Amino acid sequence: MAVVKLSPCFKDYIWGGTRLRDEFGKQCHFDTIAESWELACHKDGSCTVASGEYNGLTLEQYIDTKGKQIMGTSCENDKVFPVLVKLIDAKNDLSVQVHPDDEYAMRTEGEPGKTEMWYVIDCLDGAELIYGFKEKVTPQQFAGMIRDNTLLEYVNKVRVKKGDVFFIPSGTLHAIGKGILVAEIQQNSNTTYRVYDYGRVGNDGKPRELHIDKAIDVTDTKPVTMSPMPVAVEYEGYSCTTLADCKYFTAVKYDVQSKAKLDIDHRSFAHLLMIDGEAKIDELIGKKGDSFFIDASSGSVRINGRCSFILSRKLQKGIDIFGEK
Which CATH number applies to 3-72+79-218? Predict the structure, then answer.
């Protein structure tokens, strides 16, 4: 069995705030922390091991040292690490954007596409996000909205509250609105096509790049069907709520009142992101904002304390996601 604590890498995008430092204890030299990449093994950022004999290794080095089998049998055919997990603090609106699917992204960007999900950890009263279109439009109409600067009249704006979950398949137009803090579980990709950015300029004083032609190529212009809100399943000492269950990742929120036991089998690694409280994870102490990598085939991992966390794995859709009950 192997459980290691991870140290994230950070992004200081212009829309970010300070909540990840102020409330989650993130240590970073940036004035603002837009994103902390909690599980990351990507050319644009990598987390590092922050405990035990492998302390200081990047996640990629850790996997190389121990062998790819620690990723699990479900990852045997993956050419890159499959999942990226972030905390995102949107002090201001993110750009309206879209991500390509695997085929388009590999052909044009040389990396996987990006299906993702959001769990709303907290938000201001009245906060909204953009989630697809109000009604079906054609690609030609979509292009006209962008050209005429009327896009925001046609997008689907959704008021959010703490605990909301949004599943965002590749091709879905979307944007996190100001005042929202989310945990994001996604494919391991950093390809984003911006469609609209409120006329903002970047840190270099120039308007941020838009990617109109590519966005029109990949955007699904049908309205998104809202999924029903997930329901918690109660067990002795804890409850589980399935947040997402797709071929790219499975994410389950655990609310632990006293204790829980995870069964991390041969199929997949696990990533544990603490979003509230404090607990002992085997021999390591975890508090709000901490992040842990668990090798595949680790077996039983015991959680003792009062906490909430999101457990992310790569599993076959819909099979045995809760582990031992």
Answer: 2.60.120.10
Which of 21, 107, 147, 194 is labelled catalytic?
Answer: 194
Please tell me the distance from the alpha carbon of residue 99 to that of residue 315, in angstroms, as a whole number: 22
pTM of the model: 0.95
Catalytic residue status for 19: no
What string of DSSP letters covers 184-238? EEEES----EEEE-TT-B-TTSSBPP--HHHHHHH---SPPPPPPPP--EEETTE
Q: Check if the beta carbon of residue 113 is closer than 8 Å to that of residue 191.
A: yes
Segment holding 137, helix H or strand E: none
Chain segment 111-134, per-residue pLDDT in tens: 999 999 999 999 999 999 999 999
CATH class of the domain comprising 233-313: mainly beta
Domain ranges of the chain: 3-72+79-218, 233-313
Per-residue pLDDT tens for 206-259? 888 899 999 999 999 999 988 788 889 999 999 999 999 999 999 999 999 999
